[in-house]
Amino acid sequence: MILSHSKRFLFFCNPKTGTSSLESVLSHYDESCGEDLASPGLFPHRHAPPEIVRALLPAGHWDSYFKFVFVRDPIDWVVSQFRWNFPPPLTYVKKLYWCPSRVFETVREYGTFRQQIHQRILEAADIHFLHDFLRRFRGIPTYPTLYQSTYAFDINGNKIVDFIGRFERMAEDTTSVYDRLDITSKTPHLNRSFRKPALASLTDAAIDAVHQLWAKDYELLGYERRTIAELRANERR
């Protein structure tokens, strides 16, 4: 989360939606250093969800500040989450080189997630594994795992932010945000991943699992759950 009193905004960092790029610009206005909102087992400070922040901030700030978040198509988001949490083997070699003091933690992590690290095509079981893994970052205590919708809606399904930008139209939506905040800047693309399209990494059963396990995000964020035949047809175009 980035809180700015001077610009009067709250930016909620929904992971794997280009938030690192936006933060590189908006962090210049961040005045949240005195707000420690981290909650072990639910979310780190950076990814505090709005429903929690609303309960902790003065009502005047919450009601008058511009609140926004970015979201991403659930299929693309799930694949991005999987690759981020279980990166390729070379990542662990780099960790050993750059952080030799953490050699035991790195070796243990690699051993624990070795199957996921080497998994190129994701099966339904991999999607279920990720869903369970993300329970440690679920954000809202009563939710079983991490959902994007918790960064835009409260537990009753009511929209809780003023603006929901989309990863798929990042340039246009960031321009809208900057215009609203009177910020002149260009957003770099940080943490860029060079991988094949998400659908190419999923079996049909895995796609079904995403539709099922992240149904809440489809419902609340307005992304269409297209049939596998439609998705594959678009993939071939």
From TrEMBL:
GO terms for biological process: carbohydrate biosynthetic process. It is a single-pass type II membrane protein. The keyword Glycoprotein applies. Transmembrane segments: none annotated. It comes from the Bacteria. Keywords: Glycoprotein, Golgi apparatus, Membrane, Transferase, Transmembrane, Transmembrane helix. It is found in: Golgi apparatus membrane. GO terms for molecular function: sulfotransferase activity. The keyword Membrane applies. GO terms for cellular component: membrane. Pfam families: Sulfotransfer_2. InterPro entries: Carb_sulfotrans_8-10, P-loop_NTPase, Sulfotransferase. PANTHER family: CARBOHYDRATE SULFOTRANSFERASE. This is Sulfotransferase family protein. It comes from Botrimarina mediterranea.
